[in-house]
C-alpha cells in the first residue's frame, strides 16, 4: 500500500491506517484524498497508549497542562488559513464560516486554558476539615460529528486535558481531515500517548465506547447514536456526556417587525445549511404577522447564493454527505403534501449535494418536517394565535436542546422563555455559543453539559477528603 498523506496518531507516532477510505468533497463529489482507516487493533493500541500515558499526565502540574493547551491553540492559529480551506473542502461550509470555526477553536482552547480546579474547603473547625478535590477520570473517548469537526472537538479536548485526562479522539468518517491535520500538530506538542487520533468508517464508535479502559465517553452526534453510547457505557458505569439532536423552536410574538427580524431568523435556521444542532428548526409566528413574515423569509431564501464554499460570495454550501442530502430531500417531498413550499424545494442541476434554501408555510405540528430534526436547509413556518399555546407546542417534543422567543416587549418574551423546556433559551437571538456559558440539552437532546466551568467538571471525579482533627 502506498504511504498515506494523512496519518493516525497513536502513542506519539504518526502511523498509516491498516486500510484507507475515500474522503469526498460534498460540493463537487470528487474524492479529495484517501484517509487512513484504523482497524480495531489500532483502536486498542490507541487506548493502551492513552492508558499508559495517563499517570504521568495526571501528575503533571496544571500550569504545564495549560501551557500545552495554549501551544496547541497557537499552532492551529499559525495554520488557520490551511485549516479553514481543508475544512471547507471536507465539510462544505463557506470559507469565511470555516475561518470563523477555526479561530473559534483557538479561542475555545485559550478559554479552557484559563480555568482552574482549586480544592474547595467545605468545612474547617476544631472537629474536622473537609476538602473537595477534582481528580481526572482516566482515558476519555471523544467522538465528534461532521457538522463542526473542529469546534466540537474543542468542546472536549482542552477541558479533558486540563483536568489531567488522556484521550482517544475520533472524528466523523466523512470529515476526518482537519482532525488528522491536527494530529500532526499534537505529535509535536503533546507528550506521547496523551492524545491519540483514530479515524474510522463508522465502525469504531461502538468498540471505543465499550472498551474497558475508556472511563468516560464525551459524545456529540445524533440522539439515536447517543442512546447506543449510553448502552455501551452502562455495563462498566462509565461517565457519559451526550450532546445530541434538537428540534429548536423559535416563537415570534405579534409586536415584531417581520422585515427587521427576518434576516436574523433566516440566519438562525440556515447557517451551515441548517446543519447545526442548535439551528432554529421550526418557527412559530403570530397570525397577525404570519403572511408578511413568510414573504420576507421566502425572499431571503430566493436571494441566497449557494455554491462551493471555496468560491467567493457563497452564503450556503452543500449538505455534508449523501445520506443527509437524501434525508432532507425526502423530508421536503413529504412536506409538499403537508404544507406550501414558497421558496426553494429544488436541487440545482449541478454536481454536489446542494439543496436550495426552502421555506414551507401552512404546515402544522404532527407533520414530519415539523416533528423531526431536518438538519438541513428547510424551515417550516407555523401559524399560531395564542402565545401560551405556541410554547406548549414548542415543548411537545422529545427534544429540548434550544429555543428562542422574539419580541419588542422583552418582559413578555422573558416570561415565555421561562416556560420553555430546553437547555438554552435565547431572547431576540438564537444559537449564540460562548465558551464560558455551559451548554447542554434537556430530554432526549442530551445528558450533562459542555463548556464553562461545568464542562470542565464533567471531565473530573469529585473526591472528598474528610479529616478528623
Ligand atoms: P452520528 O450520531 O451519526 O455520528 C456522530 C459520531 O458518532 C460519528 O463520529 C460516528 O462515527 C460516531 N458513531 C457512529 N456509531 C457509533 C456508535 N455505535 N457508538 C459510538 N459512536 C458512534 O451523528 P452525525 O450524523 O454525525 O451528526 C448529526 C447529529 O448530531 C444531529 O442529530 C445533530 O443535531 C447532532 N449534533 C448535536 C450537537 C450538540 O451539541 N447537541 C452538535 C452537533 C451535532
UniProtKB/TrEMBL annotation:
Residues 17-465 form the Aldehyde dehydrogenase domain. GO terms for molecular function: aldehyde dehydrogenase (NAD+) activity. The active site is at 243. Its EC number is 1.2.1.3. PROSITE patterns: ALDEHYDE_DEHYDR_CYS, ALDEHYDE_DEHYDR_GLU. CDD domains: ALDH_AldA-AAD23400. It is an enzyme of class 1 (oxidoreductase). The keyword Transmembrane helix does not apply. Pfam families: Aldedh (PF00171). Gene3D superfamilies: Aldehyde Dehydrogenase, Chain A, domain 1, Aldehyde Dehydrogenase, Chain A, domain 2. Keywords: Oxidoreductase. InterPro entries: Ald_DH/histidinol_DH, Ald_DH_C, Ald_DH_CS_CYS, Ald_DH_CS_GLU, Ald_DH_N, Aldehyde_DH_dom, LUC3-like. Belongs to the aldehyde dehydrogenase family. This is Aldehyde dehydrogenase. It comes from Candidatus Phaeomarinibacter ectocarpi. The lineage of its organism: Bacteria, Pseudomonadati, Pseudomonadota, Alphaproteobacteria, Hyphomicrobiales.
